[in-house]
Design brief:
about 25% strand, Glutaredoxin, single chain, globular, 6 helices, alpha/beta
Length: about 160
Amino acid sequence: MNKINKDFICDVKIKFKLRKRNLFYHNGDKFILFYICRNFENKKMAYSNITDLTELTEVLENEDAVLVYFSHEQCNVCKVLKPKVADLLENNFPKMKMYYADTVLNPEISGQNKIFSVPTVIAFFGGRESFRKSRSIGINELAEQIKRPYGMIFEN
C-alpha cells in the first residue's frame, strides 16, 4: 500500500475533524478512514428535489409511478431511511421515480398533502395517491405495498 505522509494525515484530520480513534494501522503505516466521506460525495442521487406545488403537480401528471419522500434536515431517522428507500426503488422498482420534498423549506407542499409528521412516504400511481406511510416505515413492508400496483402498471 502507498505510504501516506504525516502532513497529509494532519490535513485530512483537520478537514474532516477526525480524532486519533478514526485512524487504523496497516503494516505500520497510518491510513485514514475517509473513504466513507468520499463515497457519499461520489454517490449518484437516485431522487430529485421538488421545490414547489406546481412542480409536484406536473410530475404527477407526467409520470406513471411516483414516490414522494417528505422530510426535513433536522430529522435523523429521515437521513438514514432516505437512501434505503432510494436503493429499494432503484433495485426493485426501476420505473418508479422518487422525489424529495423538504417540509420546512416548502410548507405549502406538506400542507396540501396533509403531512403532519416526518418521514412520510406517499406513492402515486397514475397520478392518484395509492398509499402513504408515516413515521415507522419498514423497507420490506414498503416493498410489499409497492409491488402490486407497480406490477399492474408495468408488468402487463
